């Protein structure tokens, strides 16, 4: 995909969403449309936006930071927007009923789920993860847990496998923390069984990117996991590197360097011939969703920091 197309789409989205919308949100929305191979339809986006505003309470996260990201998904979804919004809220309520505190993360989690019944397994997996990382496991894990809740396999085994991936990659120089935990979760997408070759693939991908002088930040760890599970080969990685170079040269990404690698991966996966395989296509759709959820989560964190700095007495 040409960088010019990305820049033009971003400009259209940014103008449509208005100056009050964070530019990183506009970029995330533009990437949603581009990675789906769809043109940004301002009228369709506005209609779904109004639907959400009319039906959600004033304090709902769907009317705040997540608004336009969720709007884009509902606009592009297979279900009618009204039906999709009702399902999202049903999923979110189910997570609340299973002791997940209502937050932006439960809405993101609801976006990952196909039906409310998955909330029970999400809670079970979350609790199993806490036995291995009681202090690290938090609300930020909800989107990943929700995504994995509809995957087959024993919940306890999946949590144990996550822990094994975490320890193995920690020994390979990956930094400890939330990002490494998210990576370990992503690696169980295909199977709850530990596979040493999958961990090895992550290390190889990281080393390849570093050899190409591409900075791999901790927030990029889940992206490496997506590539490992998708079994990205040398040709795919070289295509990603080429896209990274193009994005780095773009004025648009000059201020958003942290999004260069995830964006390059999104665009490369969306255009990959491998996506003609139904299983890979389903996985790729999940990859896109979790990438955008990650971006939203980071933006929420940034917003919280800004808010606290503006209210030192809080």
Secondary structure layout:
Layout lengths: L2 H15 L5 H13 L6 H14 L11 H10 L4 H17 L6 H9 L5 H15 L9 H7 L6 H16 L7 H9 L9 H16 L9 H9 L4 H15 L11 H12 L6 H33 L4
Q: Summarize the biggest pleated sheet.
A: none
Residue windows where pLDDT falls under 50 for at least 5 positions:
302-314
Strand fraction equals under 5%
Average pLDDT taken over every residue: 87
Which range best describes the helical content: under 10%, 10-25%, 25-40%, 40-55%, 55-70% or over 70%?
55-70%
- Secondary structure class reads mainly alpha
Task: Give the N-to-C terminal Cα separation.
Answer: 46 Å
Question: What is the number of domains?
Answer: 2
Using the CA coordinates, give the radius of gyration: 19 Å
Number of helices: 15
Sum up the overall morphology in one term.
globular
The count of β-strands is 0
Descriptive overview:
The protein has helices at residues 3-17, 23-35, 42-55, 67-76, 81-97, 104-112, 118-132, 142-148, 155-170, 178-186, 196-211, 221-229, 234-248, 260-271, 278-310. By secondary structure, the protein is mainly α. The chain has two domains: 1-77; 151-314, no CATH class. Helix 11 (196-211) packs across helix 12 (221-229). The longest helix has 33 residues, at 278-310. The radius of gyration is 19 Å and the shape is globular.
């Amino acid at each position: 995909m040409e960088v010019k197309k990305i820049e033009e789409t971003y400009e259209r989205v940014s103008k449509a969403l208005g100056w009050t919308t964070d530019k990183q949100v506009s970029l995330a929305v533009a990437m949603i449309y581009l990675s789906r191979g769809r043109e940004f339809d301002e009228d369709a986006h506005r209609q779904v936006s109004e639907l959400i505003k009319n039906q959600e309470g004033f304090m709902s996260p769907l009317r705040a930071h997540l608004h336009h990201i969720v709007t884009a998904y509902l606009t592009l979804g297979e279900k009618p927007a009204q039906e999709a919004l009702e399902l999202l809220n049903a999923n979110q309520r189910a997570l609340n009923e299973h002791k997940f505190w209502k937050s932006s993360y439960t809405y993101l989690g609801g976006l990952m789920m196909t039906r409310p019944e998955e909330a029970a397994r999400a809670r079970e997996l979350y609790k199993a993860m806490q036995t291995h990382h009681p202090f690290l496991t938090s609300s930020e894990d909800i989107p990943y847990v929700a995504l994995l809740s509809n995957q087959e396999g024993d919940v306890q085994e999946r949590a144990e496998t996550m822990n094994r991936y975490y320890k193995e990659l920690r020994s390979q120089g990956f930094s400890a923390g939330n990002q490494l935990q998210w990576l370990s979760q992503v690696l169980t997408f295909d199977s709850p069984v530990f596979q040493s070759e999958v961990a090895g693939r992550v290390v190889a991908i990281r080393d390849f990117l570093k050899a190409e002088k591409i900075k791999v930040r901790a927030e990029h760890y889940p992206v490496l996991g997506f590539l490992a599970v998708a079994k990205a080969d040398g040709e795919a990685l070289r295509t990603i590197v080429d896209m990274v170079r193009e994005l780095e040269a773009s004025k648009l990404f000059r201020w958003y360097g942290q999004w260069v690698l995830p964006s390059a991966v999104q665009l490369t996966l969306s255009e990959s011939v491998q996506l003609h395989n139904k299983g890979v296509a389903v996985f790729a759709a999940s990859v896109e969703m979790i990438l955008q959820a990650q971006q939203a989560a980071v933006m929420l964190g940034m917003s919280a920091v800004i808010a606290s700095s503006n209210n030192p007495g809080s």
